[in-house]
């Protein structure tokens, strides 16, 4: 059977197109090269999560400070690029990485199994713990166990791992998702909610600044990985390897713990000067 010339041409073009498509699929964007070529590392974060990232005044200027900020700066220095912090609501932080608007996200992000399906994560750099914050005068009288929160309102930060933990542990409660932890604290103090589920280090800061609040002894279970890690686009093998080396070095030198402690002290100092709670 003799094939007509026009059919040969179509088959040839189809073959070229298939090879081109295959090559394009197999050569995913190298995030590390992308960052180095543009000379800037864009970091997505939500600056309302002291002591990891928060706003403060330094040398008369509005500044974003915190343990995560220091880690991001070290990553930028090691890569030889400038660091640009892009602030947004927490529920948009990972979406910004997925869309390519940010190169990485470092904002107290837990590397859960579900998130790992969509993003690459570095090795963890901080082991977090989730607690339940309540009014001090209610701990002994009203809320002694999880069942006491049945039909009550509990506030969480929208998009956080604490949102999932609250829903899993306090299934009979009304979980209210808010944009910022500060909003949740205000709701608690005003009596709009009966508790707030927060990461322990963040909760401690609010307790130290609000004598009417305390951390409940009620334990909250979690089936996911609550430790914090740096998020980046899927397939960022080279960047991930580099970030892992940086994190390993910082942990070995004890610098991450120092970053958290220093940032915690700064957050308390900043909030006392401004006259507002963190």
Q: What features would you highlight for this structure?
A:
5-stranded mixed beta sheet, alpha/beta, disordered C terminus, D-Maltodextrin-Binding Protein, domain 2, single chain, 2 domains, 278 residues, 3-stranded parallel beta sheet
Strand order of the largest sheet: 10-9-11-8-12
* 3D shape: globular
CATH architecture of the largest domain: 3-Layer(aba) Sandwich
Number of helices: 10
- What is the CATH level 1 assignment of the largest domain? Alpha Beta
GO molecular function: ligand-gated monoatomic ion channel activity
Domain Ionotropic glutamate receptor C-terminal: 40-259
Pfam family, one: SBP_bac_3
Protein name: Polar amino acid ABC uptake transporter substrate binding protein
Short description:
The protein is an alpha/beta fold and 278 residues long.
Write the layout of secondary structure elements.
Blueprint: H1 5-26, H2 31-38, E1 40-45, E2 48-49, E3 53-58, E4 61-65, H3 67-79, E5 82-87, H4 90-99, E6 104-105, H5 113-116, E7 119-121, E8 130-135, E9 153-157, H6 161-169, E10 174-178, H7 181-189, E11 195-199, H8 200-209, E12 213-215, E13 231-233, H9 237-252, H10 255-274
Helix pairs in contact: 3-9, 3-10, 8-10
Pfam family, one: SBP_bac_3
Domain Ionotropic glutamate receptor C-terminal: 40-259
GO molecular function: ligand-gated monoatomic ion channel activity
